[in-house]
């Protein structure tokens, strides 16, 4: 897998974490609205609909990053750590929540681990190496015994 493809997967995973954070904030605001008249009911419905939309976009991007990735680990760590980190910052700024130095130390270690995993040099697995050694079935100069002894793929007749 190329480095640019891996970076694109991580970007999608980071965006999915951001949309998940936004969905959490919208949901918290939506649940805090007290319904007193039709305008507050409309505001509550719009905030909850925006929460659903944000979470749907986040899940879509996360699934796309997983589908294009050789391993689910970097995508999962990227999405989760961005969601965790941004939720803490927005919780402090918007809702007055507090976090301890111990919590921030743990979060920093998670982010450091993310950087190490995402910047690790790619390794070639056995199955990837075997893909390069396959015989092309469309060649006319192949020996018939090679095809007869090759394992069959797909449905049997």
UniProtKB/TrEMBL annotation:
Claim: Membrane is one of the keywords in the record: yes
Segments passing through the bilayer: 12-29, 41-63, 75-95, 101-118
Residue ranges of the region described as Disordered: 126-157
SUPFAM superfamilies, sorted: Multidrug resistance efflux transporter EmrE (SSF103481)
Biased composition regions of type Acidic residues, renumbered to the chain: 134-144
Keywords, sorted A to Z: Membrane, Transmembrane, Transmembrane helix
Protein name per its UniProtKB record: Transmembrane protein 42
Source organism per UniProt: Trichogramma kaykai
């Amino acid at each position: 897998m190329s480095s640019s493809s891996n970076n694109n997967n991580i970007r999608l995973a980071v965006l999915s974490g951001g949309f998940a954070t936004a969905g959490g904030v919208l949901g918290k605001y939506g649940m805090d609205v007290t319904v007193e008249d039709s305008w507050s009911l409309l505001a509550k419905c719009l905030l909850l609909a925006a929460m659903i939309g944000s979470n749907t976009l986040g899940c879509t991007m996360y699934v796309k990053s997983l589908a294009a990735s050789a391993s689910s680990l970097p995508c999962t760590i990227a999405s989760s750590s961005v969601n965790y980190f941004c939720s803490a910052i927005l919780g402090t700024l918007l809702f007055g929540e507090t976090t301890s130095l111990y919590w921030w130390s743990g979060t920093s270690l998670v982010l450091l681990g993310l950087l190490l995993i995402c910047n690790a040099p790619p390794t070639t697995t056995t199955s990837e190496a075997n893909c390069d050694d396959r015989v092309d079935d469309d060649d006319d100069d192949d020996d018939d015994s090679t095809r007869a002894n090759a394992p069959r793929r797909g449905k049997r007749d």
